[in-house]
Design goal:
12% strand, DNA polymerase, domain 1, Rossmann fold, 2 domains, two-stranded antiparallel sheet
């Protein structure tokens, strides 16, 4: 069960793997894009960088594995593959229910490492495009998670002090960023585990 703490005045949600069940879509797009570039990437490497924008992951990949993949070109190719599959996205019910329950009662934002067009398509696919008062994405001039910037920008747009914001996340990078922003963070992963 997800709890919203009593002193909370705003809710901030990650998107991929938190509000929308899209991680399978993203991982398949990652593997297909790496294959198109003539290399492979371990799943564990991708999982360890969950929450980081595509270009950043490719730059880390280049350093870790000695490649010279153009991160911008790769990001565009991966984005195209993701777009083709996004309509398959489904909401993650325990988290989507919180957003439904608090819609119109508390200001809410999405803070995602996805690009804006992808995030909007995802939210539309899960029927939640108009549920949020702010959407901060990889297209905004903020440092990506685990830096706190994306969460601080979401709080700023909502007009709520960081300490009164509660974040819902599924990635270590995002949880760290929320904590560094001075926000309460809820790791939703335990809710997704099947008994």
């Amino acid at each position: 069960m997800i709890t919203v703490f009593p002193d909370i005045k705003a809710l901030i949600f990650d998107l991929d793997g938190t509000l929308a069940d899209t991680m399978t879509i993203h991982y398949q797009a990652w593997h297909d894009t790496f294959a198109a570039f003539g290399v492979s990437c371990p799943q564990s490497f991708l999982e360890s960088h969950n929450g980081t924008p595509t270009e950043g992951i490719v730059e880390h990949f280049n350093v870790a594995f000695g490649h010279r993949i153009d991160s911008k070109l790769f990001a565009q190719a991966k984005e195209n593959r993701v777009k083709d599959r996004l309509l398959q996205a489904k909401p993650i019910e325990p988290v989507a229910e919180i957003a439904q329950q608090y819609r119109g009662r508390l200001p809410m934002a999405v803070a995602t490492g996805s690009r804006l067009a992808i995030a909007q398509t995802m939210l539309r696919a899960i029927g939640m495009l108009n549920h949020f008062d702010a959407l901060v994405s990889a297209d905004d001039p903020v440092e990506p998670k685990p830096a706190p910037d994306i969460f601080l920008e979401a709080a700023r747009r909502l007009g709520v002090e960081a300490r009164y914001c509660q974040v819902f996340e599924d990635a270590d990078h995002g949880l760290e960023g929320a904590r560094r922003a001075g926000m309460r963070a809820v790791d939703i992963r335990p809710l997704l585990k099947k008994p």
